[in-house]
Amino acid sequence: MLGKPAKKGSYSAESITVLEGLDPVRKRPGMYIGTTGPDGLHHLVTEIFDNSRDEAMGEFANDIEIALLPSNRVRVVDNGRGIPVDIHKQTKVSALETIMTTLHAGGKFGGEGYKVSGGLHGVGASVVNALSIFCRAEVHRDGAVHAQEYSQGKSKAKVKKIGSSKKHGTIITFQPDQSIFPDTNFNFDRIVTHMRQQAYLVKGLRISILDLREIEKVDDMKVFYLRELGLDAPSMSFYFEGGLISLVRFENEHSKPIHKNIFYVEKAANGKEYETVEIALQYVDDISSRILPFANNIYTAEGGTHLTGFKAALTRTLNNYARKNNLISEKEDNFTGDDVLEGLTAIISIKLSEIQFEGQTKAKLGSVEAQGMVTTVFGDAFATFLEEKPDDAKSMIQKVVLALKARKAAKAAKDSVLRKGALEGMTLPGKLADCQSRSAEESELFIVEGDSAGGTAKMGRDRRIQAILPLRGKILNIERARLDRMLASEQIKNLVVALGTAIGDTFDITKLRYHKIIIATDADVDGAHIRTLLLTLLYRFFRPLIDAGHVYIAQPPLYKIKIGKQSFYAYSDDEKDKVIGKETNKDIQRYKGLGEMNSDELWETTMDPTKRILKQVNVNDAREADHIFDVLMGTDVPSRKAFIQSNAKKAILDV
What we know:
- By secondary structure, the chain is an alpha+beta fold.
- It is built from 20 helices and 24 strands.
């Protein structure tokens, strides 16, 4: 199904503006895609998809397909107008070749190709081409099919007509260069998550994702959409008419809303048809917030001017309404930005014809005018919503008042902890066996389970650089606990003081006392639970430590195997089987806890920096991680049960 035909418009070679050549990309790929790790690899898919999505935003396309193919190739198809193939006056070659092989060449600079686009920098297709060992562009337009192939950014031959076609659109197939990317394996679920989000943002756009990597031969030259082949392979398809309201409902599916109606506004700003502000929000019974800002449908993970304008208008509007309607007394303080964000789910989407991102990866919006646009449009519409929906407004204000009171209680509890802690020059927690070094760069903190393991670790450690903090049993599940209740827990209080960074609004990562924070729990179900509770605490209240790469998980061995007079350690069942082989004179010890090892064994297997195995904790997809924490550690029991049932086969059972 191709949908409605592309609109007629002045999209030709003359619409393409050329700024500079392509050579720098392979020399410094990080400047264009951020990193050559997994994030950069998946950014290649996003760059090609964004070009197709921009066609849909201009109402030139309504159907996009992304397919993962064998040999780690990716194929992106849209039913838009098709890239122009006529000769470009400036470059003297086809406009298709110009776009694919020239940096900063595209239809998004001169204003003729697109009124609104996400790929304003215009480097997407050429950067992907430069970083691919194979790339192929196929264009269906004006009754014909044209194609060209490339390698490492250079064309193999001229653009060639290869047949006739009644279709319209563009097919880009690329294979990342393994000399650039250490790992070229794409994550299907990660791509699905991103494309679901995009489908919410562009009403009426169908996005299909297929994983055909296990199909031995995919003849992608004969069909426009591979889904037409009916291949038996993982696939997902998204199509939403509800837009941002649907996205808010999806984000809140595991939470309890505190008011009935979802706020929504979509309005042109400054009287300009192509410059719009679209926002949807709803408060839920939670203490964390989920705010997703977009600019021209690009997710700006680091926020920017549109988010600044939203927060300012939200705080001011709720304060004004609460004062005007006597919902807070004259003696009470105004709500702060943190107060009004607690429990808020909000989607902010703005569109600008001239947009400025900070950096090619577009993680932060820099357009100054966006702040005023959002402040005015959202502020006026939200004030009207509160007046017209007094029951919803009252529920919101009550939620924010509760957050204000909790903030004051948390501040008092936090100040009490810090006054008694190391930050004020007082003693460290009694359970902590600190290291001798005062250099945070070389110091390590082992968080261990129980006094038994703590005692063994204290005897086996390198006292100069390794500190030990034993925990007694399971710490508080902080997923829905406020700061004042958290700090009433002796276990959590000891950890906060030991880290030295403080917590909450006074958190300061520069005061971190150890640059390696190592969670060392037993290799059983209880140990896994304690590890999960600790990770929840660190993710929610010490997230910068994870982002900076300071958090690790120790990997103690599961088995000690004695064969004759020799001893071996195995960290998995497969490794144990390899060690044993065909030996019949053997003794196998299964470690259930760190306390079962003597100090020498613990040092040799788990603590010795020259031999140990550590897993560094990172968050590749923060939103997906946030969702998983909500499901596993929150109060939505049916969702947790469904998650466990659907993932039961992946579990490693301790039986």
